[in-house]
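Re-run with default settings, no changes from the original entry. Doing this only to confirm the output is reproducible before filing.
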Amino acid sequence: MTREQHLVLTPGAPAPAAEPVRRAGAARYARLRRHGRRLTPLLVVLLLAQMAAAMITTAVQQTPTIDEPVYVATATDYLHAHRVRYNPEHPPLGKLLIAAGVAVADPHYDPAYTGGQGEAGRRLLYASGNDPWRVMLWARLPVIALTLLCGLVAFAFAREVAGPAGGLVALALYVFSPDLIAHGSLATLDVPAAGFVLTSAWLVWRARRRPVPYLPAAGAALGAAVATKMSALPAVPVLTVLAAVSVVAAHRSAPAAGSGPVPRRFFPAFPGFRPARPVLAWFTGRRRTVGAALAGGAVVALVALAVVWAAYLAVDPRLRFTPAEPVPAVHGLRGQLVDLLPVPEAYRAGMRVQFGLEDYPWQGYLFGHVYTGSLWYYLPAALLVKTPLGLAALGAAGTVAVVAVRRLRSAAPYLLLPPLVLLAVAMTGARDFGTRYALFMPMFLAVTAGCLPALHGHRQPGRGSRWGGMLTCALVLYAAVSSLRAFPYYLPYANEAFGGPVHTHRLLHDSNVDWGQDLGRLADRLRQRYPGERVWLVYKGSGVPSYYGIHAADPRRVPSERVHGLLVVSDSAVAKARGRLAELIAGSRPAGEVGHSISLFRR
């Protein structure tokens, strides 16, 4: 029988004409994989370079946001006075990172100043003979560098789960995330804390194969997150449990002698039953696995705790704590839990400050409505507005894939549990101030979206896999274009479903839109288009308008009939305008906007 006759007579065999086509397709695919391995490093460099350019440009153009002067002043105090005095509500590690840049700027600083942390920040930048543009740029550069490194973590995490294509998808979605670009270009703590959590989850995932080197590293990353922001504390039990799961997985992939399943002949119901030695070996192996799992979780927790102590010791080896402002007392169960924590006294004081802030009746704004208190659905709603549609679609599809597809299911707990637990806890918070409290979401969402290429068939590509790959590329490109269109105004970004950055101020407020970042741009606009005009200013931020040449008065402090000329109002103040300010805005006509965060009116 000839080969052709054998193929025809064999059930399920491909047609003779299809065989050369299949071989040619496989050869082409092999060539593409070889070229892909060579192109991957170049694409990684290009993507990170794009993000670096966007963040540095943003950092150069933006004036200090509300929180930045506090962090920069605290970092400067660490360098000069070596003490924990300002901003105890946030642990020192993130501010030590900022201090690396401040040390290069070397600003003039008076350690004897006795004012509060906000006043200390403004004094450092505007009343000590320093150049705030230079100081802020150097303070922001270490955070920019760390944000780029976390992009490499996202790439590595997705590549290990889904291959090089998955890594590139994750990295592309990461580097084009407007929220990560916006907050990664600021001297703040939100991106570093979220990036450390992502790094810890990745290292715990890697511990499934080699627990010994990766679990201590995962603990160090987790400790770095907790030593940067206390909002990362809910990740500690999650990642500790996942570390134990990884140890069990490692033991299953390389079982010790006697740890396999007990043969059926060893049960007494069978005539062939032997003495209890194999059964004992089986139970001993299981005991060892459980013990190793508990030890793995303990290693992660203990190393994390050690990093927290190390962060405070790096500031002051004597662990002095002299707060510039009073620390509130916390009673009841919360106070007892705080007192039991084996952390430095300054950390416990910071937790008391955080609990005091949570008890304050803050004012929020969502979709045109002002309210007092907090809404449990605020963060999901804000994320829906500020997440690029391409990232949202791919992230949702990736979430379904890692749960439904068997070969990806082992990664599901590491990709889904940390962000979901952190988001659930953040939703119970009292401060509805922006998506910066949930920056771990775009990070983990990008990695989860990177799992999709694993479904497209790496070995035998077909029509379905080609269409799937094309759709994934189209959505990544859509997310990139949406982000590039926002340049350089990333902070007030909103996706196209909600009208884009121009309309964000009608839906959200505070750090979602207007965090005081455009005072310098406002000064340029007034000099170019409104020289010599009377200016009335309601500004929300930590900057000093007069330093930038803005000489304005507060319109709320004079009778309405005297307010004539140009009325300039931060969009957060516009959103929550009531009483006198609302009357002034209603009696004015729009005259433009600056950076999608400051509105101009003509009276």
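Residues 18-61 form the longest helix (44 residues). The beta strands are 363-366, 369-372, 535-538, 566-570, 589-594, 598-602.
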